[in-house]
Amino acid sequence: MLKTILAAPVALLALIALFFTTLSMAAAPDAHYRIVTGPERGTYIQIGQDLSKWVAQPAGIDLEVLPSKGSAENVQRMRFEPGVKLALVQSDVYQAYVDMANSGNEEAGTMIRPLRLIMPLYDEEIYFVVRNDSPMKTINEIKDKVMSVGLIGSGTAQSASTLYRLMFGQPIPEQNAQHLSNEDALAALIVKKIDVAIIVAGQPAKLFTDMNPELLQQIRFLRVDPNAPETARARQTYFPATIHVSSYPNWLKEDVPTWTVKAFLVTYDYNLRDTVGNLKRFADSLCENFDNLQEHGHPKWKQVKLELPGLGKGWQYYQPVERRLKACFAHRAAMQAANSPANGAAAPQGATASQKINGRPCTDQERLLLLCGK
Question: pLDDT by residue (tens digit) across 47-100?
């Protein structure tokens, strides 16, 4: 009897302690982090907004979505801007930093070696846009044409430069390359100041879906020619893709074959306890809320797979998150298998020409990766 009388107050005290602990946890301020994405009307910024709403918020993280010029700028800001804990980066930009670091470029090594991947996301299409009255039909015809290749620091600039060099065995002639934003590039194209606008964006891209229909009818996409020798050379780094009529149903009359590049979610090799804990919660939420991302987010989420494929040399996953994601992916797979008895159970592959680095002129690659003028 005495034990029962004594147990009641103890149990009551335990409940009160739990109540106030819960209140203090609920009242605790969220972690305030930032993610750097891409241009205002690009796909990256929409992906960032989806991550903020459907992943970060349920994990108790206030994730501010920041626009940027693109992938190379994102690498820089991921490394040095306070509060930036996540970034979206194209695979060819990440690989370019790795290659330059391996070739002895100390600044590229400083930039890329502490970065870690959270997971691969989706493929982004590379658009080669010309006027409707252009004689060009295929991508391999762009040699020596005046073109916008994207802003310095953007993933588009890296993709355009790499593709051109692969296809034609030489860099884009400096007098032919203009570094314009996507919107400015399309405007310059329509008024005949350039011949080609190269744009990287996941379909459907707001840049085109929001465009004035009359202006839209003045432009079209170039196609990959599967038989061109330039195509075989581009295939060393990039993968075939298709721009679908369903992405732009009021404009395109047929599918357009093109190239694609992989997008990755990137972080830093953090070891502070609070940051590690927050990113673990982010990883759990990413896995648990993946269905919401696919249902409510940008259509590109439907292409994302819950998997962590093997990586090339110089690429590493962020281990605390990697372990968390693998465990969650395995749990989801087991649950799906249990609920579907009939079914049983891409990784990687503005500045001026007069700028110098370590006393010598910058290369085009160093300019695109923002490694000059330091």
Answer: 999 999 999 999 999 999 999 988 889 999 999 999 999 999 998 889 888 888
Whole-angstrom distance, CA of residue 88 vs CA of residue 55: 15
Q: What tokens does 354 get? A: 């007069």
Give backbone dihedrals phi and psi of 91, rounded to 5 degrees, phi first. Answer: -65, -40
Q: In this predicted model, what pLDDT tens digit does every residue of 91-141 receive, in sequence order?
A: 888 988 888 898 899 999 999 999 999 999 999 999 999 999 999 999 999
Contacts of 312 (CB under 8 A, 6+ apart): 95, 98, 347, 348, 349
Alpha helices in 103-224 (DSSP H): 106-112, 155-168, 182-190, 206-209, 213-216
Cβ neighbours of residue 271 under 8 Å, at least 6 residues apart?
A: none
**Residue 266 carries which side chain, given as an amino acid letter?**
V
Domains in the chain, start-ordered, CATH in brackets?
29-368 (3.40.190.10)
Q: Which of 40, 185, 77, 172 has its CA nearest to residue 127?
A: 185
Alpha carbon distance 297, 46 (integer Å): 8
Query: Which pLDDT value is given to residue 221?
Result: 97
- Vertex 267, ends 261 and 269: CA angle to 5°? 130
